[in-house]
Amino acid sequence: MQSWIPLIPDSASSVSWKVDALFFYLSGITLFFTLLISGTLIFFVIRYRRRTPYEIPRPVAGSHKLETVWTVIPFIIAMTIFMWGVFVFFEQYKPPTNAIEVYVVGKQWMWKLQHATGQREINELHVPVGRKVKLIMTSEDVIHDFFVPAFRTKADVVPGRYTTMWFEATKAGQYHLFCAEYCGMNHSGMTGSVIVMEPRDFDNWLSGNTGNMTPATAGQQLYQTLGCASCHGANGEGGRGPALTGTFGSQVSLANGGAVIADEAYLRESIINPQAKIVTGFGPIMPTFQGQVSEDQLMQLVAYIKSLHVGGQQTPVTAASPSPARAVTAPSPTRNAR
Amino acid sequence: MRPIESFELPSPSKVNYLIAVYGLKSWLLTKDHKRIALLYLGSITFFFFVGGIYALMIRLELLTPQGDFLASTTYNKVFTQHGIIMVFFFLIPSIPATLGNFLIPMMIGAKDLAFPRINLLSWYIYLLGGIVTIYALLAGGVDTGWTFYTPFSTTFSNSYVVATGLGIFINGFSSILTGLNFIVTIHTMRAPGMTWFRMPLFIWSHYATSLIMILGTPVIAITVLLVAFERVAGVGIFNPKLGGDPILFQHMFWFYSHPAVYIMVLPGMGVISELIANFSRKNIFGYSFVAFSSLAIAVFGFLVWGHHMFVTPQSVYAGMIFSFLSFAVAIPSAIKVFNWTATLYKSSISYDTPMLYALGFIGLFTIGGMTGLFLAALAVDVHVSDTYFVVAHFHYIMVGGTLMAYLGGLHYWWPKITGRLYPEGWGRFSALVIFVGFNLTFLPQFVAGYLGMPRRYHAYPPEFQVFNVLSTAGASILGFGMLIPAIYFVWSMRYGRHAEANPWHLPGLEWRTQSPPPTENFETTPIVTWDAYEFAPPEETEVVGTLRGEYDRA
Amino acid sequence: MIESHAATPEIHGHPALQHHFENMEQQREAGTLGMWIFLVTEIMFFGGMFLAYTLYRTLYPEAFASASNHLDITLGAVNTGVLILSSFTMAMAVYFTQTGKSRPQVLCLILTLILGLTFLGIKAVEYHQKYTDRLIPGKLIPGAEFTTDPHAVHLLEGATLKQVEMFYYIYFAMTGMHALHMIIGAGLLLYLIIFSLKGRFDPEYHSPVEVIGLYWHFVDIVWIFLFPLLYLLGRHLEHH
Prior knowledge:
CATH superfamily of chain C: Cytochrome c oxidase, subunit III, four-helix bundle
CATH superfamily of chain B: Cytochrome c oxidase-like, subunit I domain
Largest interface: A-B, 89 and 103 residues
CATH class of chain C: Mainly Alpha
Oligomer: heterotrimer
Number of domains of chain B: 1
CATH topology of chain C: Four Helix Bundle (Hemerythrin (Met), subunit A)
CATH topology of chain B: Cytochrome C Oxidase, Chain A
Strand content of chain B: under 5%
CATH architecture of chain B: Up-down Bundle
Largest sheet of chain B: none
Shape of chain C: elongated
Order of helices and strands of chain C: HHHHHHH
Structural class of chain B: mainly alpha
Largest sheet of chain C: none
Distance between the termini of chain B: 20 Å
Shape of chain B: globular
Number of domains of chain C: 1
Structural class of chain C: mainly alpha
Order of helices and strands of chain B: HHHHHHHHHHHHHHH
Number of helices of chain B: 15
């Protein structure tokens, strides 16, 4: 461990020291009560050891006052820990705006990652220092978990849905990436690295790794080959099916009277289970694409639809600079997208 | 009236339950709760050693960072089976089925449990579940983790999931029937004068445990059954490819499995109350608080299952509520620890083996419980979830807690159960060895966990090796320490000194009959007019009395 | 002050008194409490499946309504009536045992058994219908996998066949588990009938009849929950 504090891992994200601070607080309280109880026990055991074989000590009835004290004080201490934990937790899972997006697919027994700018990686993730990074993740098979100890964060990667996590790296270096949900034979081999680079080095890395299509471009190709255009229009302007331009992040009214926010999960679900949420004014005529598209391809389609703006313009995706602001309503702080 | 004056203890030459009837059939078809307790003792010990061998294999593999001792598929089966055997076939039945079965009727002055034949049936069901599970292990094993998460267990695992699930399903009924028997017994069969608040705290703990057993176990039964259906039928509620939800499994699984950990620890707490009071000759400080805290743990224990799922797509708001409740459930346990400690104030403490185990329990349970607070704290749990921190936490409670209590109770009541004394010197020695070995095994795991070492890893990065080496060294000491009682307990049954009716000079009902007891427990039904742990009658409480000869008439 | 065995004539009186109980009253109390606790465990056991039902009905309301409409409501309703009637005859059997009228007691037990078997027979007919319609989920019956014909069940708007399969999985799990409990109940009734004919039960000792009666009523109540939840969903939609 290169950490200057022994026995804890590298602190490499904006939230690491906050988790560590709470950890130290908990350690202090634990040490205090352990010493208190064991010290008291040892003292009593020596001071009140049996001196004659048949002695009986005077019985004591108990004390409501003492009971109250040692119920209330631990409860208050517990509540401080609870509140502190909640505050940091919300920060760990509040979905960030203006984040670099990376799509992650976990499968037995490897991690496949693709930056929104197109770079593909296997078991490695290159990120710049000082930028928020949001991971949109799913699994192709069983539940995995994306764990970076140096960032003090992890999230389960679940088949059939998207989960998200985010971090902001604060220190350049190479850090462990572990799968932290048992997934079968090579669970201990499903490891890798997160490589945090200074912004200029990251830009160099990005430009040295072009040649991959961005997920959005790949998604556009799929959109044509799978025939989506026949109902949704050549550029997503709509037709027999609802318009897709400007859909992402907006509120969609459904045929059964409800409404949903069109997030990544909604888009994914609509492709593999179109009958689940039919848009008001349209019929249940969209066929399902389940089994015809892989999770990678679904992510590419989702990325493409996300890029569609009213007026037919696509958001250009560039390296390392924040994407232009969109009129997007921020999703509520759920941990993930269903 | 002095509590004990009304008794004439029978002469030692009377027949006792061990020799009342001879022959294999008299044991295999017995209705005597004491014999059934011994049947359980034998089978539970067997499963403990099976689980222990798996533990040894895990620790041997983890000595080196590479996966060089076992193939990864084998290792995955080993840790799965270690968990299944230890949780379902050792920890859950251990104290209730051996000590509980033996002592509950005696402590309340009854001749047997309410349903003796159902008691025997529960042992056969336990055996059947065990046999089915052992068959699954021998036929090829199971590799899903004891937690059986879907869809790995329903769709991807190529191991004996259905057979193991069946074994666990069957075993669950043993638990349910035991809990049912205890509740009915405690409600309807207390001797005259034995009010609820005169009962030993051992009974209160087992009552609370039984509530959890009957309410929680059916849920794991149906969950495991649904996993089996899904594997067989190819359709199901847990597989996302078929429209199901893998997180639903986790909710259903943990709805039982969290209360299950209280099934494992509450009886241990009951034993500790007995040991602390009786080996310091003082009533438990705050008796009613300790009694009610057992019930509170049972109730709150059903409300916290989501704390195993903080890193799943469970809603953050649900996470908050589960976190809050998890802190709440820690408070009654803290109350017990404070009350036990306060009991020792101005008492008369003996250094006998049972007391050593009780003291070890209090220290180790405190550490285990407080590290539970780390896990209840959302932000920290996100980091340490699925790492060795969690493994260390629950082993502190299960081994440092429950196992210590079990050993302490076995030593305490050994004279009553067998009529023999174990060698005290060896008892104290092995207690110390176990304490040292245990801490060396699991303390380094907290560090490894926070550093990021994930659990269920067969190979790991080299920077974690030093902690694993320490842990394996500790495990060897722990294993050695546990072999010693195994040997001397067996030795004592043949060569141990004979025990008198009340070798510790104590007022509990179980000590007011011979060692070993007659089949019907008491010559005549006792009438109880004194409180639990009443070492001297009320009129003498101003003066420190003497016990000389009081409880010794035999 | 010490209670002696000789004091109470009851103890040596009734041949059915178990040796570890002080008297018949204690024995009866223990037996009844034991059965109530067992029924609580049964509630928790069925509860898991009710949870799954609730979750998936919320997720797939149209599919559940479509599949529910496809069940035979007549057979389901008849079965409901049969079971309710059987609970009545069971209660009468308990009453007659308590009042010592052994002929009506045995008659009511036999009627209860016949009604229970009727229920099971009608259930078998329903299950057979599902088999011929290829509505048994997944690969449970090799050679008779779940149908892929989208017109096998009239699908309401928004429902898919896969979701309908989920309904049938839950339907078979719940009614199957219920039927298993009925079969066990039938066995228990047989035991009661045989021992009643032997004159084993009388006004002093009839707790097996009471306790098995409790079990029977419980199985009836489970069905009373199952019937509307499984058979009566969205029936109003049928009459568009």
